[in-house]
Design the sequence.
């Protein structure tokens, strides 16, 4: 049975800001219809936790989709 999460719930599980998930990870890392859905054709996005968790822990492939994430470096304050 699939577990569906809002952006905020996913954020608390994978420790990324909700805004970063919506703007950077959605459609780059997560694919519509596989990792997330928009029920009833609306604006609401629900992430399929089971598939995301499998993707994050799948070490059998040569390329890990999570490698596409660009981490922001903290700015150096003089």
Sequence:
């Amino acid at each position: 049975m699939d577990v569906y999460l809002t952006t905020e719930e996913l954020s608390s599980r994978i420790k990324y800001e909700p805004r970063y998930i919506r703007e950077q990870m959605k459609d780059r890392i997560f694919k519509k219809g596989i990792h997330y859905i928009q029920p009833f054709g609306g604006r609401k996005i629900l992430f399929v936790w089971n598939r995301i968790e499998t993707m994050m822990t799948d070490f059998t492939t040569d390329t890990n989709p999570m490698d596409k994430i660009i981490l922001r470096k903290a700015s150096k304050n003089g």
